[in-house]
Write a structure and sequence with these properties.
The chain has 9 helices and 14 strands. The protein has helices spanning about 25-40, 60-75, 90-95, 125-135, 150-160, 185-190, 210-220, 240-255, 260-270, and strands at about 5-10, 45, 50, 55, 80, 105-110, 110-115, 120, 140-145, 170-175, 200-205, 220-225, 230-235, 235. The chain has an 8-stranded parallel beta sheet with strand order 5-2-1-12-11-10-9-6, sandwiched between helices. The protein has a two-stranded antiparallel sheet with strand order 3-4. The protein has a two-stranded antiparallel ribbon with strand order 7-8.
Length: about 270
């Protein structure tokens, strides 16, 4: 069975130190959490950045500062900036980290009701704009899908030339307003992508590790981290992102999946080495 690619989403834009004191805000905290994840077996760091007081930002200079610091600590890791940003940011504000020409970046494939009055807006034209920028900058997009309709959107825009194949999806499951994290839903999404596509599963909250197990068994890949879940088990906060990654490594061992190195992940995902 092919090797397992583990992504660590080490901070997100919404989770706070009140939820878990280990959530990183400062540059040194980001380096600490990235190193813990890499040492445990993550080959991709999914990256949102914050100001030192914890506010989410897409500022290019802040991304550059934190990416450089992580790269010094973890030279081989794939760093995957988020272009999701936070609700209310402009398109060009969200795209700032792509100006740094990372190997990968996220591309959200639809609009979502996050709860209350918060709407995470990604129109068809937004997705086209982001996709074209990533093609121009040689960036491998990870297609963030929160529901089946977003897979359909990605496939349609791929046919129109805004997304290149082979595609790599991230099934984000269990978010308020999106698809649930039940086995039925995983099977539905898994069966909806092209045969030559790869995928990662990001289960939110209590769905994180059950969905990780399903992806491991199926031959897919896994995302864990404080962005999605701050608990190692029910009522037990994780001390670091590395603890969450290590739990996935243990699960993978039980099912006979070896862990991919960053360069092995690049090869699997079609990223130039």
């Amino acid at each position: 069975m092919k090797k397992l690619i583990i992504t660590a989403a080490i901070s997100g834009a919404e989770v706070t130190k009140a939820m878990n004191p280990a959530v990183p805000y400062t540059k040194d905290e980001f380096v600490r959490e990235a190193r813990s994840a890499c040492d445990a077996g993550a080959s991709i760091i999914h990256l949102h950045v914050r100001t030192d007081d914890g506010a989410p930002t897409q500022d290019k200079a802040r991304f550059a500062e934190i990416i450089d610091a992580i790269r010094s600590a973890c030279p081989d890791v794939i760093i995957q900036p988020s272009t999701g940003g936070a609700v209310g940011m402009s398109l060009d504000e969200r795209l700032q980290p792509t100006e740094l020409y990372p190997e990968m970046a996220t591309l959200d494939c639809g609009t979502l009701n996050f709860g209350g009055d918060e709407i995470f807006e990604n129109t068809e034209n937004t997705i086209k704009y982001f996709g074209q920028r990533m093609i121009e900058r040689g960036i491998k997009p990870e297609l963030e899908v929160f529901d089946k309709s977003m897979i359909d959107m990605a496939l349609r825009l791929a046919r129109q030339g805004f997304i290149r194949s082979p595609m790599h999806f991230d099934f984000v499951m269990g978010v308020n307003g999106g698809i649930s994290g039940d086995i039925r839903d995983f099977v539905f999404l898994r069966g909806s992508i092209p045969a030559d596509a790869t995928y990662t599963v990001a289960g939110i909250g209590r769905y994180e590790f059950p969905l990780a197990a399903l992806a491991i068994i199926d031959g897919g890949h896994v995302r864990v981290g404080f962005e999605d879940n701050v608990y190692l088990s029910k009522g037990v906060p994780a001390a670091s992102n590395g603890e969450l990654v290590a739990k996935v490594v243990r699960l993978a061992g039980e099912f006979g999946r070896p862990i991919a190195t960053p360069d092995e992940a690049r090869k699997e995902l079609g990223i130039r080495i």
